[in-house]
Structures are given as C-alpha cells and as structure tokens.
Design goal:
about 160 residues; Trafficking protein particle complex subunit; globular; Muramoyl-pentapeptide Carboxypeptidase, domain 2; 6 helices; transport; two-stranded antiparallel ribbon
C-alpha cells in the first residue's frame, strides 16, 4: 500500500496541525519584495509622511498575521496582560520569528514612566534600501514600527 507508514494522511488541508515548518526566507527575496513595496508605495503618495504611514500600515498587517499564528501555535493559550510582558514577547519571540534573531535590547525610556524602546543596531529593512537626497527624513523602520504597534492588540488575540 502506498502512503502507509508513520506519516498521518489528512483528507482536508484544514485538518493539518499548524506545525512550525521551515521558517527561513531567502534574504535576497525579502530585500527584493520589501524594496518593491517601498517603490510601489512611493508612487502612490505625495510626501514622506504618507509613505511612512503606508509602510506602517503594511507592517501592522504583517504583525497581526504573525501574532495570530504565534498565538495559535502556543500550547498554553495564555494571554499576557502586562505591558512589559507584551513588549518582552515582541522583543524576543516575534522578533526572532520575523528577523531570525532576538532584538538587541528592550530599554525603558527616561522621559516618561510608560515609555519603552526596542532597539536594533542594524535593522534588516534598512540594509538594502538607499534613500534619495530629496527624501532625507524618510525611514523604512516605519514598517517595523507597524509590526510593533500590533502588540497593542496582543491582549485580544490570545483569549482563552
């Protein structure tokens, strides 16, 4: 008999468990897709702030999907309600899934009591993007800011 063995056969693709699978993406493919995302959005807007807003929105959409996937894979289905716990989850788990390593640091701000910063020395989205002189204030990190912004919805994603 063909297909008999230790591998379990599934009648429907939706019956398959959400395993971790292979989590690697080609760096050159990511760089190409991200640069195309930036170029496309650049043709659709009039100024730099609109471009950064569109990149942030795209990052928010990516972050929401990654967050939902991580919560579905979590066996305990626990939910974090403390701000520092949520930021620590983003700093370690989410960052590692997206960028292959934990962020460099999670720091508490000095000006405000509830201000925290996730720091990365060399952000992957900035590595392959060259910014023209007329767009000197543009920063591709807006995409990652959108991913981090989705952490405000973390409490609602992982409901028991």
């Amino acid at each position: 008999m063909i297909g008999t063995g230790k591998i379990k056969q599934y009648a429907n693709v939706l019956d398959k468990p959400l395993g971790k699978g292979k989590q690697e993406v080609s760096l050159s493919a990511f760089a190409f897709l991200f640069s195309e995302l930036v170029q496309y959005n650049q043709t659709q807007v009039d100024n730099i702030s609109e471009l950064e807003t569109r990149l942030e929105d795209a990052g928010y959409a990516v972050g929401a999907r990654v967050l939902e996937l991580l919560c579905q894979r979590d066996k305990g289905n626990r939910r974090e309600t403390r701000l520092l716990g949520i930021l620590s989850f983003v700093h370690s788990t989410v960052w590692k899934v997206l960028f292959g390593k934990v962020a460099d640091s999670l720091e508490k701000g000095t000006e405000h009591e509830d201000e925290y910063m996730i720091s990365e020395k060399e952000l992957l989205v900035n590595r392959f993007i060259s910014i023209p002189k007329d767009m000197g204030t543009f920063h591709c990190g807006a995409f990652v800011a959108g991913i981090v912004k989705v952490s405000s919805a973390l409490i609602f994603f992982c409901i028991k």
